[in-house]
Design goal:
Layout lengths: L2 E3 L14 E4 L2 E7 L14 H18 L7 E8 L5 H11 L6 E6 L9 E8 L3
Parallel strand pairs: 4-5
Antiparallel strand pairs: 1-2, 2-3, 3-6, 4-6
Helix pairs in contact: 1-2
Length: 127
């Protein structure tokens, strides 16, 4: 059975999509951009602060669905500037110190709200 996950601890959807869907032992998290869920505004600062905000949003969504960052198996990263790859990768080391998930990172010309980064994730559900 497919179940939509929604939490106010992450930015609410701005379109016709769910923050995440739980189905078949997995949580599929929609792409998240660096919006502070408390203010509804993009976070200030560089790519490091933006990456942390996105990962915190993903963490909140996963926890709302009985998941966790430690159960993430796949991440997709979309960057407006691939020059930021090293900085983003360093932040990933903070959030995924052991057994990091599979990942691809691609440069794109534009993201929603002109964000610099968007990340989606797939995680196993905690037993």
């Amino acid at each position: 059975m497919k179940v939509a996950i929604i939490t106010e601890d992450a930015p609410l959807p701005v379109g016709r999509y769910s923050q995440a869907i739980k189905v078949g032992g997995f949580i599929f998290v929609s792409g998240q951009i660096p919006i502070d869920p408390k203010t509804g505004e993009m976070v200030k600062g560089g790519i490091e602060e933006q990456t942390r905000r996105v990962l915190e949003n993903i963490k909140a969504i996963l926890e709302a669905g009985d998941g966790s960052l430690s159960k993430v198996v796949k991440i997709s990263v979309f960057l407006r500037n691939l020059v930021d790859f090293g900085k983003v990768d360093a932040i990933f080391g903070e959030y995924f110190p052991l057994e990091p998930p599979a990942r691809e990172t691609v440069e794109v010309s534009r993201l929603p709200k002109d964000a610099s980064i968007e990340i989606s994730a797939i995680a196993q559900i905690n037993p």
